[in-house]
Amino acid sequence: MPTQFPFLCLIQGFDHLEFYVGNAQQAAHYYSQMFGFTLTAYCGLESGDRKAASYVLEQGHIRFVLSTGLSPEHPISRSVQKHGDAIAVIALTVEEVPQAYRIATERGAVGAIPPTTVEDAHGVFRYAAIRLYGDVLLKFIERRQYFGPFAPGFVPHVVKPLQSMGLMTIDHVVGNVEVGEMDHWVEFLAQTLGFQLLAHFDETTISTQYSALQSKVMQDSQGLIKLPINEPAAGQRKSQIQEYLDYHQGPGIQHVALSTSGIIESVTRLKSAGVKFLTVPSSYYETLDQRVGPIDEPIEKLADLGILADRNAEGYLLQIFTQPVQDRPTLFFEVIERHGSQGFGEGNFKALFEAIEREQAKRGNL
Known about the structure:
This protein has 366 residues and is of the alpha+beta class. It contains 9 helices and 17 strands. It has helices spanning 24-35, 75-83, 97-106, 182-193, 240-248, 263-273, 288-292, 299-305, 349-363; strands at 11-20, 38-43, 52-59, 62-69, 86-94, 111-120, 123-131, 137-142, 155-159, 167-176, 196-201, 212-219, 226-233, 252-260, 308-312, 315-321, 332-339. It starts with 10 loop residues before the first strand and ends with a helix. It is found in: Cytoplasm; Endoplasmic reticulum membrane; Golgi apparatus membrane.
């Protein structure tokens, strides 16, 4: 168990995830039309920013920020050259930014952005950031005295999608790190932010005949923020985690789980919009009722859409995973609907792993 220290600043939830991308305007259109996000705010040349452009996208309580550098020397541009389009910032809403930053850095976190206060006609906005695995930043946001469009420098810019996909919240954000580094980052989250170990899966739980991984799930004291961390485990061939590390050029965010209260409708709409998902053999559903027990959704509909189901002592969950959302086999998304279960679909690990390996084989990377 990691040595855990209480974090004396209230974490209120995910504020946003910031993507560094090669073309934010086109990426905003992709996430709007394919995933049903509403464009709500913009920052760029027209609003006075001469160095970068950012688009804010929202759906339910989910907020994405898509940013691109306007010169090759900009840090965002250098990040995209190294990692491709990727999530570079996990931003958490906190009660007080200076306190959160001070506690984290005093406990060993490396500061990336010191506490910064920006004011405009809409109020006072504060932020700071520390370094997480790879080049990912963990950002603290304080917006209790700010009432403008996202942050100072942004202007309203509303473009609605053709339809919402019914996505509600960020359920969890999964990171991949190198062999031997998982426990380091588990201890880091426990010591600097007071996170607790929620679950641990080793190579006996997540493996096939070819490859394996280990994973530990960390969460904040209120259970609002869940950050699983994966590392490769020894196998006959290259694991999905090592493939990610190779193409991402180091550690980073592998996937984001987005919750819904109606996964059948959400996945139906996403597929209609063109989102591609991993598939599992039809045999997976032949004994699903025996493995999972009674569920509210018709199994034939789950089979038609490729949705997986799993149950633990708390209840059951339904989940499905997209294929990578860019040419590098790196970032992808999960759609999840929980019916009591706060697990991560342990009963589906083998089926999921095999589905990913089939895609790896197509890419010549297994």
